[in-house]
Amino acid sequence: MADITPFKVSIPQESLDRLHQKLALADFPDELDEAEWDYGAPLADIKRLTKHWLEKYDWRAEERKINELPQFKTSVTIDRFGDLDLHFVHQKSPIKNAIPLIFVHGWPGSFLEVTKILPLLSGSSDGSPAFHVIAPSIPNFGFSQGVKTKGFAVPQYAEACHKLMLKLGYNEYVTQGGDWGWWITRTIGRLYPTHCLASHYNMLSTVPPSPTTNPLLSLQHALTPYTAAERAGLARTAWFRAEGQGYGAIQNTKPQTLGYSLASSPVGLLAWIYEKLHDWTDSYPWTDDEVLTWVSVYYFSTAGPAASVRIYYENTHDAQDARTGLPAWKLAQRWTPGVKIGVGHFPRDIYVLPPLWSRALGEVVYEGRHERGGHFAAYEVPELIVGDLRAMFGKRGGAFGVVKGKDGVVG
Amino acid sequence: MPTPVPFKIAVSEEKLRILHQKLSLTEWPDEVPLKEPRSRGAPLQEVKTLVDYWLHSFDWRAQESKLNQFPQFTTDIDVDGFGTYNVHFIHQRSDVPNAIPLIFLHGWPGSFIEVTKILPELVQGGQNFPAFHVVAPSLIDYGFSQGNTKEGFNLDQHAEAYHKLMQSLGYSEYVAQGGDIGNFLTRFLALKYPESCKAHHTNMPTPNPPDPSKHTDLIAKIEAEGGLSEEDQYRLASTQAHHASGMAYAMEHMTRPQTIGYSLADSPVGLLSWIYEKLVDWTAGYPWTADEVLTWVSIYRFSRPGSAAPQRIYYEMMHRESMTVVDVTAQYIDVPLGTSHFKKDLLRFPTRWDATLGPIAFQAEHDKGGHFAAWECPQDLVKDLRDMFGKESPIHGCVAGQSGFT
Fold first, then answer.
1. What value of ipTM does the predicted structure carry?
2. I need a surface site. Which of A362, A372, B72, B147 has the fewest CB within 10 A?
3. Of B245, B251, B259, which has the smallest distance from its Cβ to A245's Cβ?
4. What pTM does this model have?
């Protein structure tokens, strides 16, 4: 496996200098009186973050911290697209029969979202399972290569993740993901059901059970009143759909136009991402350094920040599957046989839909209904994600031993 | 009433210098090669060419000079419950003393500049066709008017401001013309001030489909004429296509106007692409020159209220309590209405639906032009206005004492 090479993030000084030049020239708009968050990211926050970025934020220190993660690069070949260079974190557990797990991020996240759960998944204590954890930068993001050919959509992202696992010697594996990670891991399960044997999701874009495809579940749904938590979740989802999807509309339809300001204006990129770090989390107390590191991964990304929004356009305009006539995103909402499913419901995510709807996705063996946490669950409430995974894959869990010979438990 | 103060645009050297510095630091995204290069947004090569021209050839001072040939003023207008706003406007009186006072209302991403091609023609006349006194403000939050920083400043408030502007200039009665946001503003003027706004014209009428409970006669008439024509179907289909792929800018404006404002304020290339995409997509092959594009964009870059302000009206429109803006402006308003339909506008409906909006005094369909009618097809728009208020027209003389003729 000579072509799996260790990797360290090392941004050229020239890029840092250019960033500073731009930050020093930053132009700000004004703001409505008492606007707070109603109209978007508040001016005082953006000014403060820009000032910190220019004057105090130490990228090299953050880079060193990132480089404590075991990172690598390798190439995989994607059907019809050719070779693709992938960056990934690969933490092998000291426990030999640990469960191989691929963690798939989304937007505006990155491989960094795995950082807090890594130490908790590696070891096995009190009988809970251990995992080998693989966390790529998905193509067009982070330090993976970009794809400039049209049609590289969610099935291709799924293929990239799957082929990475195969290349690392993990013929059978499990997945964890939210945001695009949800769509991608759903598709991995659909396309590679003999390899992807179990999946845990923390964001689910589910639909009400259909009376034609799921009559019993549909009936149950019709007859069971929503709990207070479910009503709150539906209200949160409605809020997101009404007030929070402008970014998605642009990214779905005119990503190139948006790309110019994302590529050329660090302040614009900062505001675009920071708004979501606030809106999509459960009052997570972001430090300025955390925000700027998340944004820097986009600013310094190999493919450039504009490439990261391509997935939205490709997904919206995805080709229809030959057999079903449905695009990949619709298929992701339908039953996937052969994949044991675990679901983490977090109250401040952007889609917070009744847990019953998830049972239409496949064989749900675990359900975590949490009282805290939002969209970036692995980062906001790592202990809850880890708790879900340990319960799901542990000795009494519904996905225990799903990967043959790798139950993750010592002895 | 305060007297309007003469105004000339004078952007500081400092602003020009910073702009040049930023342009020279532009970092470019790449692009997915496509058979339809505009489908994902403004094409890379075109934006690069424009930035290169902006940096090396575009002469803002020359464009500023050209704009300053038009008589511009500022004046303070009080808006109930909100305060005083200093409004910038072009005001050109015709030599014909009884010319019809007309207020021209722009939209996004336009500006007062859109009046400059029709103004010289409109003030002419008096013999064979009517002449107009022309008033063209920068909307509040746009161009060289003051911005607003209070929540809730909706089309109601904008209409109040421009009505009061006309009053302050001595025009107790007037007519209104607009497209884009200007279309909605003419409707609000007609609704709120029918005793003053004696007629209104839009180049982007936005009727709702006829309501079977209200428009039985119209529906019967359309049915009798064979239902919706092929052209009608085409109009509706292109409106739907716009909603599906061209409306995202509005969704961002309507929900997160401040967030996109940071990119538009800080990034000249970001502002350029945000606007330029629409200048091309919304016109019917109009041969934009680099000078035109960059002048339009510069008005936003150098605007007095800054780059988060223009989006706010969208937010307010979407979050209006009680009746939605769409329903307010689609109702029957009993003020004479003229409509001009241009081939490639973004919201296009069957022309027979216009009758649901009010008493139709004039209607024209053009097999050319797009969203920025006054800029793309100035001759046609001028002719439409002259016909709408001409001697043969049913609303000739609708403004007391100001028939437009000597």
1. 0.95
2. A372
3. B251
4. 0.96
